[in-house]
Design goal:
This protein has about 425 residues and is α/β, with parallel strands linked by helices. The protein folds into 3 domains: about 110 residues, Arc Repressor Mutant, subunit A (Orthogonal Bundle); about 140 residues, Rossmann fold (3-Layer(aba) Sandwich); about 150 residues, Serine Threonine Protein Phosphatase 5, Tetratricopeptide repeat. The protein contains 17 helices and 11 strands. The strands form 3 sheets. Strands 6, 7, 8, 9, 10 and 11 form a 6-stranded mixed beta sheet that branches. Strands 1-2-3 form a 3-stranded antiparallel beta sheet, with no helix packed on it. The relative contact order is 0.07.
Length: about 425
């Protein structure tokens, strides 16, 4: 039973968990079963014409097949037509809901009461919920692996102090349920949702992850990871690191563009900080001064927000190193003041520790720089600034090979950020 009004899929009385875009894809295939649906048709209707990877499209087709019990090889219901597209070839009976069913649909139930509840206000900084990953292996024993990947991602993202991450117990309340990510965003008060799936067979595992804008339902990023499973925990760590590394620049890029679209007088502290980063990355004298002004505005709006203090600590060092507007001594003194204020707010802030490390390098204290960079990496191994600080400490202590690896890692984590130069 495919109920397009309630957006439910059931086998008998048993509900079947299915993602919102997979549901839309299935409905579109069924409604257009008289002809072959091309990939371009699906991209236009399901993804609003946006470019998505071949693996994303394939995974959605596979999810739809699994949801309706279709065998991927025999393709009794959803058939792949070589070099053309897809066609739903099963028998379909259509009927409209009875008056009683229409009436019951309007009565609030525990599930739709939650949907009718007011949306939670979004935090001032970016926010994300990681939904439990679907186990597509057909083996319930693999649930622990799927759950482990999602839990590790939540833990790793929580180390990013600029990101508001929903706790596991709340995000895992959606396990086994068909959900619309826009409803998840409303219910949990988040701007982004990460969902994914895991399939394990014949000694290999495939993990598919998708980052979605919960306000619009648009895909921001998607990727597939194929690995051998000789050591299941090593694979779990590797996939988690790869996903977290990819999420950070994707979210940062969207947030920067969001802040650029707002007039200055309507910026929040987070958005003012983002505007500061944008100017900081331009590397001109005028933009550098603009960056410092936006960082100071962010502090005036939220004195307990450590990131703009770190921004000013970096900018003060650049006053001497890049622009010659201060002496090294004055720049170091100001930079230290801003960095220490950030650390006083949050001693575990990796970027604040990294700022102290870069400051130590500037005044020739390479060993101290390495110690502070190590603390930064321990707080958040995925902080681009922490990775950069450690790489620089290697460079200035005679370890160029390790330095080079660090610089490459920094570019991998944040390829378009203000530190990439």
């Amino acid at each position: 039973m495919l109920d397009t009004k309630r957006r439910d899929l059931k086998r008998g009385s048993e509900p079947i968990a299915i993602g919102p875009q997979v549901f839309d894809l299935l409905v579109y295939l069924v409604q257009n079963r008289e002809h072959v649906v091309t990939k371009d048709d699906l991209l236009e209707v399901i993804w609003s014409g946006r470019t998505v990877s071949e693996s994303t499209l394939t995974s959605h087709i596979n999810f739809a097949r699994k949801a309706i019990g279709d065998n991927g090889e025999k393709q009794k219901l959803i058939r792949t037509v070589a070099r053309k597209g897809f066609r739903f070839v099963g028998d379909v009976t259509e009927r409209k809901p009875s008056d009683a069913e229409r009436a019951s649909a309007s009565v609030p139930t525990p599930s739709n009461r939650a949907q009718q509840a007011p949306a939670l206000a979004l935090p001032d900084k970016p926010s994300i919920a990681v939904l439990p990953f679907d186990n597509l292996s057909g083996d319930p024993e693999q649930d622990y692996f799927a759950d482990g990947v999602a839990e590790d991602i939540i833990t790793a993202l929580s180390r990013m102090r600029w990101l508001f991450v929903i706790a596991r117990n709340s995000s895992f309340s959606y396990k086994g349920r068909a959900v619309d990510v826009r409803h998840v965003g409303r219910d949990l008060g988040v701007r982004y949702v990460l969902e994914g799936s895991l399939r394990r067979s014949a000694g290999r595992v495939r993990v598919v992850a998708q980052l979605i804008d919960a306000e619009s339902g648009n895909h921001i990023w998607a990727e597939r990871y194929d690995r051998g499973v000789e050591d299941v925990f090593a694979v779990q760590d590797e996939v988690t690191a790869a996903i977290v590394t990819a999420i950070q620049p994707a979210v940062a890029d969207v947030e920067a563009k969001r802040a650029q679209r707002k007039p200055p007088e309507r910026l929040s502290a987070w958005e003012a900080y983002q505007r500061g980063l944008w100017h900081y990355g331009k590397k001109t004298v005028a933009d550098h001064e603009q960056a410092k002004q936006f960082f100071q505005r962010a502090i005036a709006m939220d004195a307990g927000f450590p990131a703009p203090y770190v921004g000013l600590a970096q900018a003060c060092l650049d006053d001497a190193a890049d622009y010659g507007s201060r002496s090294i001594e004055d720049a170091a003194k100001l930079s230290a003041s801003w960095a220490q204020k950030a650390i006083a707010i949050d001693p575990e802030d990796a970027d604040a520790r990294a700022a102290v490390a870069l400051l130590a390098l500037t005044v020739g204290k390479a060993d101290e720089a390495h110690d502070q960079a190590s603390l930064a990496r321990a707080s958040n191994p995925n902080s681009p600034m922490a990775v950069l600080a450690e790489a620089n400490s290697f460079l200035f202590t005679g370890r160029p090979g390790e330095a080079r690896q660090g610089f490459i890692a920094c570019l991998r984590i944040d390829p378009r950020g203000p530190l990439s130069g």
